[in-house]
């Protein structure tokens, strides 16, 4: 028998403590939520005390083959309860990680075993779903990749997790409080430091002619990224994990709202000029977000990339018998909200503000005992999202992907998060094929914490 290091240590502990060591069981892979000191800010600034998975920002990359399982034991080494949500996975409801809806969070010192199948290939992520407004902002997120059986023809596959952090530059510590009413009632918590893969200035190397798959994930609490390719031509091949029917050439700005992902396949075209990803800061000024140093050259591929293989059960929903629902977003700064239902009672906006509830979804501020919609398994739901606020909202449905129903009746690509902007109603539709209690909320996490949080039941 081969002794690995872990088995060896367990064996020694057994010898020290008792006469006999138990036969080694396969130890679960652990994901420990713990404090760590990480250099988020540029050199010369102090390190930041973060809350992390396994001590790194982002947390460890989890990578499994399509159809496989993710098995991780969350070990909570923090002083507060926590839980993990596996964002975008069409998951078994009991594993969805939503404190207070699908599980009790793991108390400090306790564990929770996550074990679930991953039906869909693509780019996903995981993050805390207990007081997420604070826990995600402090660093509790990581990337989950589910690999296709046959990967696309690219030279390299690169993960780029975009994030921002609101830090005090003097101390390097997170600015507090996390539930600042000004942030909650406006655009949410946006950082003063923007980074990729936990680094302020993220750089990579490539050769002219190289074809890269770039997996972009927006892990920020509230920032909407506007992005452009520089020195590269590319195609969008997947959104929110799900492959597009056909790759779409990237022509304009790529807009990535909190929690959204985009998979790009790009060809590096720059030879001595710069290449990389640019982000728009204020409308027209562009700044490097990812710098790609170009060295060397190889022959460029001539053909556009082939589509990624479709995931299972992704047929268009049949809208003919769809049940219609209206979700009206109200509240926030610079817009009125006369009254809303709060825990079943009519209350005026002033009273809601006193409770820190600045927003409402169809008259309800915060999570109610009764769901926004009760669907029978297999039923098709069509929800009209009307944004009567002065802010954009990144609406995210757990457990199932949906499609936008466009004005001409055609349907958009599968998504799990969609950006709703003021005064532009959106229709989304999905087949309720995953039983359970599924959160539907704004992924500007301060908005979710202050009212934009509801749920859908599929039974
Ligand atoms: Cu990314 Cu409710 O979560
Ligand atoms: Cu919002």
Top keywords for this entry?
single chain, 459 residues, mainly beta, Immunoglobulin-like, 3 domains, six-stranded mixed sheet, 5 helices, binds CU-O-CU linkage, binds copper (II) ion
Description:
- The chain has 459 residues and is mainly β.
- It has three domains: 145 residues, Immunoglobulin-like (Sandwich); 117 residues, Cupredoxins -  blue copper proteins (Immunoglobulin-like); 136 residues, Cupredoxins -  blue copper proteins (Immunoglobulin-like, Sandwich).
- Helix content is 7%, strand content 44%.
- It has five helices and 32 strands.
- The strands form seven sheets. Strands 10-9-12-17-14-15 form a six-stranded mixed beta sheet, with no helix packed on it.
- A hairpin with a 2-residue loop joins strand 21 and strand 22.
- It is globular.
- The N and C termini lie far apart (48 Å).
- The site of copper (II) ion has 5 residues, from loops.
- Copper (II) ion (CU) binds next to loops.
State the total count of DSSP E strands: 32
Q: What's the N-to-C terminus distance?
A: 48 Å
Strands in their spatial order, largest beta sheet? 10-9-12-17-14-15
How many structural domains? Answer: 3
* Average of per-residue pLDDT values: 92
Largest sheet: 6 strands, mixed
User: Which ligands accompany this protein?
Assistant: CU-O-CU linkage, copper (II) ion
Strand coverage percent: 35-45%
Shape, please? Answer: globular
Q: Approximately how much helix is present in the residues? A: under 10%
Looking at this structure, what is the CATH superfamily of the largest domain? Answer: Cupredoxins -  blue copper proteins
Task: Tell me the radius of gyration.
Answer: 23 Å
CATH class of the largest domain: Mainly Beta
- Secondary structural class: mainly beta
CATH architecture descriptor text of the largest domain = Sandwich
What is the name of the CATH topology of the largest domain?
Immunoglobulin-like
- What is the count of DSSP helices, taking H or I runs of 4+ residues? 5
Residue stretches low in confidence (pLDDT < 50, at least 5 long) are 1-22
């Amino acid at each position: 028998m081969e002794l690995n290091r872990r088995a060896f240590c367990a064996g020694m502990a057994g010898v020290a403590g008792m006469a006999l060591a138990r036969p080694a069981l396969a130890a679960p892979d652990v994901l420990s939520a713990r404090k760590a000191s990480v250099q988020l800010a540029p050199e010369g600034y102090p390190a930041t005390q973060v809350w992390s998975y396994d001590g790194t920002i982002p947390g460890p990359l989890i990578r499994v083959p399509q159809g496989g399982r993710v098995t991780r034991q969350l070990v909570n080494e923090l002083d507060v309860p926590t839980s993990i949500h596996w964002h975008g996975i069409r998951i078994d409801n009991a594993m969805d990680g939503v404190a207070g809806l699908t599980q009790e969070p793991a108390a400090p010192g306790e564990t929770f075993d996550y074990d679930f199948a991953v039906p869909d290939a693509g780019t996903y992520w995981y993050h805390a779903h207990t007081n997420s407004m604070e826990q995600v902002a402090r660093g509790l997120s990581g990337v989950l990749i589910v690999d296709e059986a046959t990967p696309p023809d690219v030279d390299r596959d690169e993960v780029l997790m975009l994030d921002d952090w609101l830090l005090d530059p003097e101390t390097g510590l997170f600015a507090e409080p996390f539930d600042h009413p000004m942030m909650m009632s406006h655009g949410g918590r946006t950082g003063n430091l923007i980074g990729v893969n936990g680094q302020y200035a993220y750089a990579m190397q490539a050769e002219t002619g190289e074809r890269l798959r770039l997996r972009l994930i927006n892990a920020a609490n509230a920032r909407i990224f506007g992005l452009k390719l520089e020195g590269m031509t590319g195609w969008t091949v997947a959104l929110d994990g799900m492959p597009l029917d056909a790759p779409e050439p990237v022509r304009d700005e790529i807009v990535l709202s909190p929690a959204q992902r985009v998979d790009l396949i790009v060809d590096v075209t720059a030879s001595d000029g710069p290449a990389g990803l640019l982000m728009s800061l204020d409308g027209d000024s562009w700044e490097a977000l990812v710098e790609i140093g170009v060295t060397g050259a190889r022959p460029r591929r001539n053909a556009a990339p082939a589509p990624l293989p479709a995931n299972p059960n992704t047929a268009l929903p049949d809208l003919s018998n769809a049940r219609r629902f209206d979700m009206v977003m109200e509240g926030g700064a610079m817009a009125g909200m006369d009254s809303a239902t709060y825990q079943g009672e009519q209350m005026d906006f002033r009273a809601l503000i006193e409770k820190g509830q600045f927003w409402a979804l169809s008259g309800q501020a915060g999570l109610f005992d009764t769901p926004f919609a009760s669907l029978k398994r297999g039923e098709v739901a069509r929800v009209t999202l009307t944004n009567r606020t002065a802010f954009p909202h990144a609406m995210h449905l757990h457990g199932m992907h949906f499609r936008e129903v466009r004005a001409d009746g055609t349907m958009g690509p599968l998504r799990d998060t969609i950006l709703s902007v003021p005064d532009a109603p959106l229709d989304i539709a999905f087949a309720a094929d995953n039983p359970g209690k599924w959160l539907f909320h704004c992924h500007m996490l301060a908005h979710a914490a202050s009212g934009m949080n509801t749920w859908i039941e599929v039974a």
